[in-house]
Amino acid sequence: MASTINASTTGVGGIVTSADNTGNIDVQSAGTTVMSVTSAGVDVTGELDVTTNLVVNGQGYSPTLTLTDGATINWDTDSGQVATVTLGGNRTVAAPTNLESGAFYALEIVQGTGGQTLSWNAVFKFTSAVAPTLSTAAGAKDYITFRSDGTNLYEQGRSIGVA
């Protein structure tokens, strides 16, 4: 018979953990659940710091975040390292917020009706200091990947005119 925890307990640093008879466990800090363990897996809200190796059996990925199209396109990288935007006109990409040094970021750019252009904030650093010329056909997709130093995003690759 498996053992279960049937009550809330206060752990180190005021972290409260609770479990029910189904085997689900929640870890809370300041009244907010920051980690849930269920039979479906482990969900972590916020940042998970690992001081030794992290082994992922299966897929490790960042779901694609859809950015809001507008005159200026904003990207909060805390919401996702992989993003897509469909251009509805000529646009400018603002400096993304919450960049992490050493992190990789990817952006998919989709032409709406076609022919839209994109201007880039100075934090975007491109190969040979030249921003890519986007595809122009309606529905065309371009992909650009970057590596961050925490302040700037350095182009690591581009795939122009994929679709």
- Compute the CA-based radius of gyration: 21 Å
CATH topology of the largest domain: Jelly Rolls
Give, in order, the helices and strands: EEEEEEEEEEEEEE
Largest β sheet strand count, sense and barrel closure: 6 strands, mixed
Report how far apart the termini are: 55 Å
Tally of separate helices: 0
CATH architecture of the largest domain: Sandwich
| Weakly predicted, low-confidence segments | 1-7
Let me know the average pLDDT.
85
Shape: elongated
Q: What structural category do the secondary elements indicate?
A: mainly beta
Tell me the number of structural domains.
Answer: 2
Portion in beta strands: 35-45%
Query: Can you count the beta strands?
Result: 14
Features:
2 domains; single chain; Jelly Rolls; elongated; mainly beta; 39% strand; five-stranded antiparallel sheet; 163 residues
Q: How are the SSEs ordered, and which strands pair?
A:
Elements: E1 9-10, E2 16-19, E3 25-29, E4 32-38, E5 41-44, E6 64-66, E7 72-73, E8 82-87, E9 91-93, E10 104-111, E11 118-120, E12 124-125, E13 141-148, E14 153-159
Parallel strand pairs: 6-8, 7-9, 8-10, 9-11, 12-14
Antiparallel strand pairs: 1-2, 2-3, 3-4, 4-5, 10-13, 13-14
How is this structure best described in words?
The protein has about 160 residues and is mostly beta strands. It folds into two domains: about 1-60; about 65-160, Jelly Rolls, CATH 2.60.120. Helix content is about 0%, strand content about 40%. It is built from no helices and 14 strands. The strands form three sheets. Strands 6-8-10-13-14-12 form a six-stranded mixed β-sheet, with no helix packed on it. The protein has a five-stranded antiparallel β-sheet with strand order 1-2-3-4-5, with no helix packed on it. Strand 4 (about 30-40) and strand 5 form a beta hairpin. The protein is elongated and about 60 Å long. The N and C termini lie far apart (about 55 Å). Mean pLDDT is about 85; it is low at about 1-5.
